[in-house]
Amino acid sequence: MGCKSLGTTALLTIGALLSPSAATASEEGGGLRRKRSASHQYKSNRQTPSQQRDNRHLTEEAATNTDDNNAVGEDLARRFFLPASHHELDDIDMRELILQMNFDGSMSIMTPVPTRSPTKRPSVSPTFSTSAPSTSTAPTFTDCTNPGTCENRLQEQIYQISERVGTVDALDDPNSAQSQASDWILEECDASIPIDPCTASQIILNEQRYALAVMYFSLSGEGWNAGSNPSLDKDAGEGTWLSGLNYCDWGSEISSASGSSNQLVCDDFGNVLNLNLQSNNMAGPIPPEIGVFVYMTSYISFFNAQAGPIPTSLGLIEPLQTFDVESNNMDGNLFQPEYSGPGGLTEIVNFRASLNNFRGNIPTEIGQWTKLQNLWFADNEMTGTIPSEVGNLVDMNAFLFYKNQIAGTIPPDIGNLDKLTWIDMEDNQIVGTIPEEFYSNLELEEVIFKNNSLSGTVSELVGDLTKLSTFWASFNELSGSIPTTFGNCLNLEELELQNNRLEGPIPEAFGNLESIEFLSMEQNGLTGTIPGGLFGINLNALRILYLNNNQLNGPVPENWGQSQRLKDLWMNDNVLTGTLPIIAEGEFLFLEELLVNNNDLTGEVDDSICLIRNDTVPGGNLGVFHSDCQPPPGGGVPQIICSCCTACFV
Predict the structure, then answer these.
(1) Rounded Cα–Cα distance for residues 357 and 355 (Å)
(2) For position 89, what pLDDT does the model report?
(3) Mean pLDDT value across residues 535-553
(4) With contact defined as beta carbons under 8 Å apart, do 520 and 544 qualify?
(5) Distances, alpha carbon 197 to alpha carbons 3, 287, 422, 644, in Å
(6) Which residue has the higher pLDDT, 145 or 282?
């Protein structure tokens, strides 16, 4: 398509004048094409000066010996077929020649009716370099104003793509995804409706068609769960990649927890807008040709087996807003300057790369991603520190980097993130204190500091975080007392403070935590008595209560059985005294684990407790019951008399 047809006379005339080595014409499907070579290798067609002289000599002889009734006039032949010595065959203005022939009356021109409507012009026209490549693998440049072959024009476009994204060498490797995609798209020159390599608005669509084919071959498309086309069937229907259809119809419908969507979405001009290839059994590297999708706003491919680094050509996709490659096998530096440095992905909103093998540091340039809302790179091999420039990300909603090797301190600038709702830095090497500025992020709902080396205290300002639902600060070196202001956090569901150096009493205000489900303060130095409010009816959501391995004293609160949904109650390894209170019928119905061993408790366990064992009738759910019911080594009466305990300690 895009090349005008010539009559038979014109073909014979031109064939007599052109050297066989310069161009061999054949009449295929009514159009003028150069014969396709045996290989699609991207080798140069340029001629040496001596070859050009020989070809001119042959052309002169052909022009002289042509019959006067069929030949083009000598003037016309010399003007258009005998260019100056520094010109090449592709410099001939064939359209002007044909017009001159027509005006001469020596032949007529047929202009076929287009077989389809032109594609809408994209909002931004593509720009192409017209300079000749210096490497030997470049095809001879063919201007679309001259009748070069469809294959040559496509090869030129593919070569230009490869120069932009750095895959020129792959074109000569027959096993590469680029070579396979090239062979596939070149076959479309022979389709019933051939691909159009000339129209400017179509060229950028051809580039994207080729890039999608590279992705298919690079990511093992033959094994995909959705969209696979193992036989490369051109007649395959919608939802099948590499069919003969418009590529905007290749995407399959996919379902996820958030609803249904399409694998491939285009805009009104046919440009790739979204690629959603999640959970699609994809294996292999994301090819650099992803950079061809310069209009794309979203690339999602989590839960696959993609490997290798993120292509640096990602930086060419200026409007990209979402990049999600979580749960793959990717590696290399996560933040590369081509897309995270100056002029990189300044429109990025969601950058998710958790559960891979990425390494490197968080660059200071991250502060330029000012539209970023979600930055996730948990469970990787990242090192370095948290740069203060993170404080520039004022639209940040979730910052997740748990299970890495991030060190250093939490910068005070993190207090600027007043839209932050979720931060998770568990399992890193963070040191120092939690800065007071941190508590300025009043939208926080989930805060996870677990398993670092944080020191200092938890500020009373934590009470300002009234939207807080999760606060995990366990397995650190925090000291001081537990802030009473936690009692203001009425939405708090999970509070982990275990394995620190906390001291002082358990705040009475904990009795206000009406939403609390999981409360752990074990392995600290807490003192004082256990507040009765922990078992009050106000805490009817509480299921897990760990108070073990502290220095708590006094009796077990009399109302302890009122915790209707309590499942685990660990109070072992303290200095509790007195006897275990009787429970009323219908209490502790969900209790499964009760640990009170290694205390100073005495007396006999009441039958009301034994009746909730899981081996009684009607029974309850209590399956683990530890107490100090073992007689002393030298003999004598045990501290506690218990007929239903599952394990006895001295």
Answers:
(1) 7
(2) 41
(3) 96
(4) yes
(5) 10, 23, 50, 85
(6) 282
Three-state SS annotation for 481-544: ECCHHHHHCCCCCEEECCCCEEEECCCHHHHHCCCCCEEECCCCEEEECCCHHHHCHHHCCCCE
Query: Considering Cα of 63, then 67, then 68, then 70, what sign does the dihedral take?
Result: negative
Does residue 577 have a pLDDT over 70?
Answer: yes
Q: How many CA atoms lie within 13 A of 138 on its CB side?
A: 14
Report the C-alpha gap between 592 and 598 in whole angstroms: 19
pLDDT digits (tens, 9 = 90+) for 217-249: 999 999 999 999 999 999 999 999 999 999 999
- What tokens appear for 464 in the block? 């300002």
Q: How many residues does the chain have?
A: 650
Number of H helices, E strands in the chain: 9, 39
pLDDT at 141: 52
Given this model, what pLDDT does residue 343 score? 82
pTM for this predicted structure: 0.77
Please give the pLDDT value at position 553: 98
Q: What is residue 96's predicted lDDT score, i.e. its pLDDT?
A: 44
Whether the CA torsion 400, 402, 406, 408 is positive or negative: it is positive
Nearest in space to 401 (alpha carbons), one of 427, 420, 419, 421: 427
Tell me the C-alpha distance between 357 and 359, whole Å.
7
Give the amino acid at 565. R
Instruction: Give the pair of three-digit tokens for residue 302.
Output: 């989590």
Between CA 358 and CA 360 the distance in angstroms is: 7
Q: Pull the structure tokens for residue 278.
A: 């999640």
Give the DSSP H or E segment for 184: helix 177-186
Q: What is the C-alpha to C-alpha distance for residues 469 and 251, in angstroms, rounded to an integer?
A: 39
User: Which residues share a beta bridge with 357?
Assistant: 331
Number of Cβ atoms within 10 Å of the Cβ of 258? 6
- Given a cut of 60, whether residue 131 has pLDDT beyond it is no
Nearest to 104 by CA among 148, 136, 70: 70
Distance from C-alpha of 509 to C-alpha of 533, rounded to nearest angstrom = 8
157/196 Cα distance (integer angstroms): 12
Measured in whole angstroms, how far is the alpha carbon of residue 612 from the centre of its chain?
50
Give the side-chain half-sphere CA count within 13 A for 406.
Answer: 29
Identity at 186, one-letter amino acid code: L
- CA–CA distance from 33 to each of 87, 371, 481 (Å)? 21, 50, 85
In which region does residue 459 sit, left (phi positive, over 0), alpha (psi from -120 to 50) or beta (all else)?
A: beta
CA angle 430, 447, 534 (to 5 degrees): 120
Encode pLDDT of 171-215 as tens digits: 999 999 999 999 999 999 888 888 888 888 899 999 999 999 999
Contact between 520 and 492 (Cβ < 8 Å) = no
3-state secondary structure of 305: strand
Q: Could you tell me the CA-to-CA distances from 217 to 131, 195, 230, 307, 329 in Å, in that order?
A: 30, 20, 10, 14, 18
Q: What is the pLDDT of residues 497-540, one digit of tens each?
A: 999 999 999 999 999 999 999 999 999 999 999 999 999 999 99
- Of residues 138 and 466, more confidently modeled: 466
